[in-house]
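Hi F.,

I've been meaning to write this up properly since the lab meeting, where we talked about keeping a consistent format for the predictions we share between groups. The idea is simple: the sequence comes first, exactly as it goes in, then the structure tokens exactly as they come out, then a line or two of notes. No screenshots and no reformatting. I'm using this chain as the first example so we have something concrete to point to.
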Amino acid sequence: SRKPVMIGSKLESSNAELALIREDFTKKIKHQTFRQSVNGIEIFQPPIRVSFDSNGEIIATSGAVFENASSAIENPKAKINAAQAQQIAVGNSGVGLNHFRVSEAGSSDRMLYFPLSQDRLILAWEQIIWATETPDAYYILVDAERGSILFRRNLTSYESDPHGLVFNAESPRP
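Output, unedited:
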């Protein structure tokens, strides 16, 4: 398969890697999804998606390659560890420490580069924490140098008027 020229030329100048994380096919279109990393550490950003027609020509793209990624890294070493990042994430959740459970060591703790701007990447700890008294789960990025919260998203979606069928076993329809 062809490599997109747009991605290839930007990638060479970024000293980073693109990893194919998903490939989907329809009768006439192929969709590829990529994640960018540098020095083996993923850059936090929306994935890069490229769609090809049946002749292998690019028909659509979304996302962007972070250019000059290796020269944009500010502090390549973390000053806080994963356990400290978890405590910071829970402490800044807005709910008391007693109302969350955190992942077991290593299950969601990983380092990412977080883009502060187009020319600045900093290390961050990725954390996922779950509330114990509600269905809420939070995806949180903690600055690995200063311990500040860089990003927080509630992974739970609430419906105002939920409806649908629920089955205790497999659906009766194949």
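Notes:
Residues 1-13 have pLDDT under 50 and may be disordered.
The beta strands are 17-25, 30-38, 41-42, 48-52, 58-62, 100-102, 110-117, 120-131, 137-143, 149-154.

If this format works for you, I'll send the rest the same way.

G.
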